[in-house]
């Protein structure tokens, strides 16, 4: 529970207060990232379904997207923009790391962020017009699996930035494989619950495959360009995996 609260404090804007804190908890709390993601997805689903009763699907979609962005403080969106600003062009590793730390947004970052928001809003609008179970499943799975993808990269790659100047230094240390096992366990429990609720099994399988493909591609990209992951790279991974899972749920098959 303590590690879950640390993960909740790190990934969201919820007012979580801890009496004591040890840096190592931040490293181990990544095992609960998918659980926090499921919570964020649940909030999005509640807003989407509720708003769809009052307004057209596209308005409900934007409101649901706004709710999840507000809950996370745009944490992952910021990482997406910084990553594409740094790696969108052809620059050396050192220059890319400097660009990532720049608070200003460039053309690559603006394009990536704009297209991400537009595509997610469109996908949520499609879900808003469908039965509620599918929308709930898609939001829960997309947020949980996307964060599990980020954990997978942390476990499989070294830190690629300057560890001494990392914003969250404990996450720049090696992440134990057991944390990925537990993170995947949370995803497994969620998927089993969705399957038992009657969600179409091929959709769930496609969602898992989509998140895995994004994780593998991002791992290769970050390894080739930076020699490892950064916090911004993890945010980009989450965003792209989230989109991939939503695409899997809305695909016609």
Automatic annotation (TrEMBL):
Highest taxon of source: Bacteria
Membrane-spanning residues: 34-55, 105-129, 135-159, 171-194, 200-218
Keyword Transmembrane: yes
Metabolic or biological pathway: Cofactor biosynthesis; adenosylcobalamin biosynthesis; adenosylcobalamin from cob(II)yrinate a,c-diamide: step 7/7
InterPro entries, per database record: CobS
Pfam families: CobS (PF02654)
Catalysed conversion reaction: alpha-ribazole 5'-phosphate + adenosylcob(III)inamide-GDP = adenosylcob(III)alamin 5'-phosphate + GMP + H(+); alpha-ribazole + adenosylcob(III)inamide-GDP = adenosylcob(III)alamin + GMP + H(+)
Keywords linked to the UniProt accession: Cell membrane, Cobalamin biosynthesis, Magnesium, Membrane, Transferase, Transmembrane, Transmembrane helix
Cofactor(s) the protein requires to work: Mg(2+)
GO molecular-function terms, A-Z: adenosylcobinamide-GDP ribazoletransferase activity
Subcellular localization, as worded in the UniProt entry: Cell membrane
EC number assigned by the record: 2.7.8.26
Record's bilayer topology term: Multi-pass membrane protein
Function: Joins adenosylcobinamide-GDP and alpha-ribazole to generate adenosylcobalamin (Ado-cobalamin). Also synthesizes adenosylcobalamin 5'-phosphate from adenosylcobinamide-GDP and alpha-ribazole 5'-phosphate.
Protein family membership: Belongs to the CobS family.
UniProt protein name: Adenosylcobinamide-GDP ribazoletransferase
Organism per entry: Pelomonas parva
Upper lineage: Bacteria, Pseudomonadati, Pseudomonadota, Betaproteobacteria, Burkholderiales
Gene this chain is encoded by: cobS
């Amino acid at each position: 529970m303590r590690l879950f609260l640390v993960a909740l404090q790190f990934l969201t804007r919820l007012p979580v207060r801890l009496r004591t804190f040890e840096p190592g908890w931040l490293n181990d709390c990544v095992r609960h990232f998918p659980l926090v993601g499921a919570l964020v997805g649940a909030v999005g689903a509640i807003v989407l379904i509720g708003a769809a009763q009052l307004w057209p699907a596209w308005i409900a979609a934007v409101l649901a997207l706004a709710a999840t962005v507000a809950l996370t403080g745009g944490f992952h969106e910021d990482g997406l923009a910084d990553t594409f600003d740094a790696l969108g062009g052809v620059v050396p590793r050192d220059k890319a790391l400097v660009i990532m730390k720049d608070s200003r947004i460039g053309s690559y970052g603006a394009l990536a962020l704009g297209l991400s928001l537009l595509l997610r809003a469109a996908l949520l609008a499609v879900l808003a017009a469908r039965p509620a179970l599918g929308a709930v499943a898609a939001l829960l799975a997309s947020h949980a699996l996307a964060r599990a993808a980020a954990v997978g990269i942390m476990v499989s790659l070294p830190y690629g930035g300057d560890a001494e100047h990392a914003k969250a230094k404990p996450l720049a240390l090696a992440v134990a494989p057991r944390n990925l096992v537990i993170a995947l366990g949370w995803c497994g429990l969620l998927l089993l619950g969705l399957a038992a609720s009657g969600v179409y099994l091929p959709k769930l399988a496609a969602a898992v495959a989509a998140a895995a493909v994004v994780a593998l591609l991002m791992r290769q990209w970050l390894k080739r360009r930076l020699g490892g992951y950064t916090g911004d790279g993890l945010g980009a991974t989450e965003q792209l995996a989230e989109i991939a899972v939503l695409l899997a749920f809305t695909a016609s098959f």
